[in-house]
């Protein structure tokens, strides 16, 4: 048995006008709550789910329906990002021990069913469940606040993700008292899908003195006998070898199924490299992978986004603020990261950033500092241009990081 000490959850308190209000934990498995209540909370407040901590490309999520009908049953909550990445949610209160394994099989059945759908199938289902004529594209545009979303690109993204089974599957409830390793036998029955499965617990508290107010905390702590957060990633097929990776707070545990296992990755990263390769060629993909490895060696973090990857530098003082250094989009274009707000928050002189911008801009033909937005370039450059200046460029990044650390 693996033991990580006697860790216990603390009780949150609310301090308002210097008055402290205590809280009382309300287990979801009591009769005060129902799975329908959880579905409603998620539908109205999709941000309550820690999606960005699991698969950043799937966030922020937009709720597009409750009890969405499929041939495999009704999906409790269906969410989608503004880029067309789909999240399937199954809510579960673990009052019935026999239902624990059934819920895993159920959410996998939903994923299998959706992988057979076309964009039109999904659009029709969304119109039906919401009982209005507003289609999926309109819902995404309205809720994401981006009326200029390219319709054809969004439809292509959604269609591709449906076809490949590229989903985020969330089982949300009050914890799973079952070894996550035992779930692999169920997960390995779907090798044709490329999905991430996460188990999330919602902790609910009542605050004393606050009428009709609840504090809800998405719990992402892994324990040995009660798994409240675990991420299982599966990719491959039976011909090439099924690859399973279990990621918990106890560490990343590769599981050998058939031929091989693989290191930690994300669906967003896989999608990024796939589309980068389609837009450029394999040599560009290989170069970007080398740049990522070199960047991590000098202390940079990799932020995976739906349209790009970002190189970021974590504040050495431990504030949690990350300075944006560089972004590389799926078309092989690069742009200096805009870090003015982060630098101001860290009380670091902006002149350091402006000089960094000017020095890097002169390495590329046609690039100069943006006069209207200091600290950024006037336009994108390309990976092809970066290749010829790579060593010089990386040395300048290292100097910039040293200057930041000295502040």
Automatic annotation (TrEMBL):
Lineage of the organism: Bacteria, Pseudomonadati, Bacteroidota, Cytophagia, Cytophagales
Organism: Dyadobacter psychrotolerans
GO terms, molecular function: nucleic acid binding
Protein name: DUF91 domain-containing protein
Superkingdom of this protein's organism: Bacteria
């Amino acid at each position: 048995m693996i033991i990580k000490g006697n860790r216990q959850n603390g009780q949150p308190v609310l301090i308002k006008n210097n008055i402290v209000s205590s809280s009382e934990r309300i287990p979801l498995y009591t009769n005060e709550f129902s799975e329908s209540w959880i579905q409603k909370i998620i539908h109205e407040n999709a941000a309550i789910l820690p999606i960005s901590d699991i698969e950043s490309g799937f966030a922020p999520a937009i709720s597009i329906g409750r009890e969405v009908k499929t041939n495999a049953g009704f999906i409790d909550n269906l969410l989608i990002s503004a880029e067309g990445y789909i999240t399937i949610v199954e809510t579960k209160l673990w009052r019935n021990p026999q239902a624990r394994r059934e819920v895993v099989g159920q959410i996998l059945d939903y994923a299998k069913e959706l992988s057979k759908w076309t964009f039109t199938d999904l659009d029709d289902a969304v119109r039906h469940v919401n009982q209005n004529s507003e289609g999926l594209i309109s819902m995404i545009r309205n809720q994401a606040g981006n009326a200029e979303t390219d319709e054809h690109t969004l439809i292509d993204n959604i269609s591709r993700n449906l076809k490949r089974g590229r989903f985020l599957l969330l089982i949300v409830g009050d914890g799973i008292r079952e070894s996550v390793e035992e779930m692999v036998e169920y997960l390995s029955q779907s090798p044709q899908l490329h999905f991430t499965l996460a188990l999330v617990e919602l902790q609910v508290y009542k605050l004393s003195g606050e009428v009709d107010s609840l504090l809800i905390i998405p719990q992402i702590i892994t324990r040995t006998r009660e798994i409240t957060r675990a991420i299982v990633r599966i990719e491959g097929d039976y011909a090439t070898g099924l690859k399973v990776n279990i990621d918990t707070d106890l560490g990343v545990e590769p599981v050998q199924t058939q031929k091989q296992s693989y290191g930690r990755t994300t669906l967003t990263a896989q999608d990024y490299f796939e589309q980068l390769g389609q837009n450029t060629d394999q040599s560009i993909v290989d170069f970007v992978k080398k740049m990522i490895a070199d960047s991590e060696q000098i202390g940079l973090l990799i932020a995976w986004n739906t349209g790009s990857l970002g190189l970021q530098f974590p504040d050495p003082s431990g504030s949690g603020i990350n300075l944006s250094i560089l972004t590389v989009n799926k078309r092989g274009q690069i742009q200096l990261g805009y870090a003015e707000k982060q630098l101001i928050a860290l009380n670091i002189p902006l002149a350091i950033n402006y000089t960094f911008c000017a020095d890097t801009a002169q390495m590329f033909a046609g690039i100069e500092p943006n006069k209207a937005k200091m600290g950024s370039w006037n336009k994108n450059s390309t990976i092809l241009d970066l290749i010829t200046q790579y060593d010089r460029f990386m040395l300048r990044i290292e100097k910039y990081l040293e200057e930041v650390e000295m502040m």
